[in-house]
């Protein structure tokens, strides 16, 4: 969670100035009443305080909204006027000052949250529209960026020696049968080529004739 120092400084300076003008004895603070309205000053002061406080912490939008409403709208906007009524500074509690404080704070919260929402949408859109490899584009692993070149298409099944041997097994069996039918030896009687099984049968028959 990062702190934005510029907004933090603005918040501190504005709060100190508002505390002095609102809580100091009335005799020490002489604000010209001509051409100015006390309620408008309350509205503008709390608009600046709320806006600067909203942008101090760099966190999610919901947490910023909750912190701002609690600190600026409730604690400072209402609590400052309640405290003013208890201090012996010659000032009186004024309900309309609270209304001006809360109205200015809520207006600042509404504008800040609206701007914050649109800012996040622009960042998200720029991130999705960024061209891969473009300078300044951040890599997003969830979108498949930053993990090297990707290939598209159907991957072919790798051919291995075992797979090739299995595919050619039937063809080899057919070739062996053809070789058995065509390959033989010349018989002694001139009958031509005979297979090994035919030669064995012939020799058995000749042996039987000799015995007779």
From TrEMBL:
<feature type="transmembrane region" description="Helical">
    <location>
        <begin position="98"/>
        <end position="115"/>
    </location>
</feature>
<dbReference type="InterPro" id="IPR006976">
    <property type="entry name" value="VanZ-like"/>
</dbReference>
<keyword id="KW-1133">Transmembrane helix</keyword>
<feature type="compositionally biased region" description="Low complexity">
    <location>
        <begin position="155"/>
        <end position="166"/>
    </location>
</feature>
<dbReference type="Pfam" id="PF04892">
    <property type="entry name" value="VanZ"/>
</dbReference>
<feature type="region of interest" description="Disordered">
    <location>
        <begin position="147"/>
        <end position="212"/>
    </location>
</feature>
<feature type="transmembrane region" description="Helical">
    <location>
        <begin position="42"/>
        <end position="57"/>
    </location>
</feature>
<protein>
    <recommendedName>
        <fullName>VanZ-like domain-containing protein</fullName>
    </recommendedName>
</protein>
<keyword id="KW-0812">Transmembrane</keyword>
<keyword id="KW-0472">Membrane</keyword>
<feature type="transmembrane region" description="Helical">
    <location>
        <begin position="69"/>
        <end position="86"/>
    </location>
</feature>
<feature type="domain" description="VanZ-like">
    <location>
        <begin position="37"/>
        <end position="114"/>
    </location>
</feature>
<feature type="compositionally biased region" description="Acidic residues">
    <location>
        <begin position="167"/>
        <end position="181"/>
    </location>
</feature>
């Amino acid at each position: 969670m990062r702190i934005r120092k510029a907004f933090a400084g603005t918040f501190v300076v504005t709060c100190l100035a508002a505390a002095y003008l609102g809580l100091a004895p009335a005799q020490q603070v002489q604000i010209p009443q001509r051409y100015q309205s006390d309620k408008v000053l309350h509205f503008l002061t709390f608009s600046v305080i709320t806006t600067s406080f909203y942008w101090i912490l760099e966190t999610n939008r919901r947490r910023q909204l909750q912190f701002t409403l609690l600190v600026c709208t409730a604690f400072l906007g209402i609590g400052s006027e309640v405290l003013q009524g208890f201090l012996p500074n010659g000032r009186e509690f004024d309900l309309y000052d609270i209304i001006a404080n809360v109205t200015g704070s809520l207006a600042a919260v509404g504008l800040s949250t609206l701007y914050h929402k649109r800012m996040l949408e622009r960042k998200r859109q720029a991130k999705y529209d960024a061209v891969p490899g473009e300078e300044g584009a951040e890599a997003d692993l969830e979108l498949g960026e930053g993990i090297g070149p990707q290939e598209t298409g159907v991957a072919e099944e790798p051919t291995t020696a075992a797979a090739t041997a299995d595919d050619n097994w039937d063809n080899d069996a057919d070739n062996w049968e053809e070789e058995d039918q065509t390959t033989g030896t010349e018989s002694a009687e001139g009958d031509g080529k005979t297979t090994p099984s035919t030669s064995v049968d012939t020799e058995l028959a000749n042996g039987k004739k000799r015995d007779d």
